[in-house]
Amino acid sequence: MATVEFKGKTFTVDEDGFLENLDQWNTEWVDYVKDSEGIAELNDEHWKVINMLQDYYKKNGIAPMVRILSKVTGFKLKHIYELFPSGPGKGACKMAGLAKPTGCV
Amino acid sequence: MAERITDIGPPHFEKFLPPVIKENYGKWKYHEIPEPGVLRHVAENGAEIYSVRVASPRIMSTLQARDLCDIADKYCSGYLRFTSRHNFEFLVSDKSKLEPLKAELAKRGIPKGGTGHSITNIVHTQGWIHCHTPAIDASGVVKSVMDDLFGYFGSHKLPAQLRISLACCLNMCGAVHCSDIAILGIHRTPPKVNHERLRHLCEIPTTIAACPTGAIRPHPDKSIKSVVVNEERCMYCGNCYTMCPALPVFDSVKGGVALLVGGKVSNAKTPPMFSRLAVPYLPNNPPRWPEVVQAVRKIVTKYAEGANKWERVGEWVTRIGWEKFFEVCEIPFTFQHIDDYRWAYDTYRTSMHFKF
Ligand code: SF4
Ligand code: SF4
After folding, report:
1. ipTM score for this prediction
2. Among A61, B189, B244, B261, which residue is least crowded by beta carbons within 10 Å?
3. CA–CA gap between residue B67 and residue B69 (Å, rounded)
4. Which of B1, B199, B245 minimises the CB distance to A102?
């Protein structure tokens, strides 16, 4: 477990850079993660994905399936990868402050 | 993302075929096994190629792989392949190189075999080398069992092929569910719930849905975002831990090995079969797992004595009956052997036919 300081905020992260404590999520976190995720500047489309993931997680307690994410945001998987080069799991979910994907990934 | 190359797939296999194979692709007439570990394929036009099959530990260093490449350079114009059970095959197009290759292998102590009615390599998994859900190790058990059964690797003395596979947990990566003898890692204790960290690490609905017996419920105290496990319903499959890191299930003392027998994948004579529980529990006993080695040997020996030629383990057991199988292998029949999962009814005996 490591601690990250960024713009005056502290985050505890695991070895893959996911938040260890989901309550620590804030917009600085998104700002901090974007560099390691290969994103230069966040636009509205990035935020649409992040907001959708967070809303869905709050409501259902799980991350949405990729097809649901695509359907709700209107972004095809290809476009999601253009926004988040590491993909919806490692990229978008990490930025949105969701728990790390599990199972046989 | 600059200069990033993606979606190019594997290189085409044709690039790596020895000329004899390329020229006679799809035009083979017959093959024979002149001796254990050596195959001879003859093409319609009389061309032939010899494949010398050698054992591999599957997990190997680059140095070992380079050694094998050196041998292939020397005797096979650089051509070799590996099989679906992780053996290596040297592809010899020039017959005069066959005996020198065999001599070199003998000198280096690389065993050849794994053909015909033998016990070829054990299909196995990651174990304690790399996975986070194992109940047992893979490489260690495989080495111990193959050491003991080594005589069956380089010989054709069994009634039929005998496939052994190992999986270190119930995910059954590999082929344990369809092998003549399967070595399977099992837990015998329920997962321990880390209530404090669970909500940060796990999606609770996914975790609940992961349980095949419905043993997981949301924590009754609504202020605690966690789950509880009904231990009476839990059969320690560990699936919930796969989904949720806050539910560790490994127990070095209570975990161990189950043996299954009688699976096969080929359609030869009889349809493919699943392997079934033979020994419910043997202790995890590194580094040589003597109990497992002994139990596997017992089954192999009794099968070799009792089966007819061409009869796979599953076919032998079907012919003599399961009660006889337990009797000849001296395996105590316990309540664990009786299926109690969903479609269990079909596995009960609905007949008067049985042997005392
Ligand atoms: S069988 Fe289980 S423990 Fe072994 S490699 Fe597969 S998932 Fe991991
Ligand atoms: S170990 Fe398996 S049976 Fe037990 S609670 Fe977890 S998922 Fe359910």
Report:
1. 0.93
2. B189
3. 5
4. B245
